[in-house]
Structure formats: structure tokens, C-alpha cells
Amino acid sequence: MEKRTAGILLYRRKAKVIEVLLVHPGGPFWAHKDDGAWSIPKGLYGPEEEPLAAAKREFAEETGGTFTGTPHPLGTFRQPSGKALSAWCVEGDFDPRKLVSNTCMVEWPPHSGKQIEIPEVDRGAWFTTDKATVKIHLGQKPVLRALLAHLGESGS
Known about the structure:
Layout: E1 4-14, E2 17-25, E3 42-45, H1 51-63, E4 72-78, E5 84-91, E6 103-107, E7 115-119, E8 121-128, H2 129-135, H3 141-151
Parallel strand pairs: 1-5
Antiparallel strand pairs: 1-2, 1-3, 2-8, 4-5, 6-7
């Protein structure tokens, strides 16, 4: 069965510039990775869950925050991993200093048999769309382009 993920791309307008909220994955594997490591808040969902409901749940789980705007669909994007990412955009605001992520267990070091608990997300930040193009995972760049098309903006 195809693995499916869903996420929310929160955006805001600041001094006529579009900024997007991205999150950085937690844990030792990602600790020293920056460019190309950031993501929209997103996660896996099963056949029993609606994609938009999963996107809202994942946003809350990975940020500890909520949003009040109306989600607009950006599309479904095939990721390099083969997963299908369904994404929505919402205009809103969030203070990344207040980010509180859920945790998960991972094997670390790899193949050691030792399990450690890590936050799924260790931080969040607002980026202009140009800067976000550098920070975001390669497979999620089309999500940024879809946001710009939705907003009628040009950009990277």
C-alpha cells in the first residue's frame, strides 16, 4: 500500500513579503543538517483518516499550535521516497519560540538496537519563499511553487 502523508503550509505576509513556517526534524541524524532538511509540518496517515484531518492533526502534533484560517488545497506531490504528500496552505501566524513537538522512538546509533526518544521536530522558523526554497526538502519545493501560484505570486 502506498504511504501517504498530509501537511499544512502556514504562510503570512510581512511587509508585502510572503513568509512560510517550516519545521526542522529532531534527533541526532538531523542535528547538523540545515539546507534541504526543513519541512512543512506533516506526517503519515492511514486509510481510515481523511487527508485534511491528518494534516491538521500533524500540524498540532509537530508544533503544539493551532491555526484559525481556512485551508486551501495545494495538491498532492510525489516525494523522492515514493510517498504521496497532500498539502494545504493556510494564512496565519505562529510563534516558533512556542513550538512543542510530540516525541517518537528511534534506533540510535543505527543498527545498535538501542532506542532513544527524540522530538519529531526540534524547532520551527519563518522563511521568505526564496530562503525556504533553500531550506526545504527537495521533494517539497513543488509545494512552495504551488503556494506561490495559489497566491498569484512569482518566485523561486
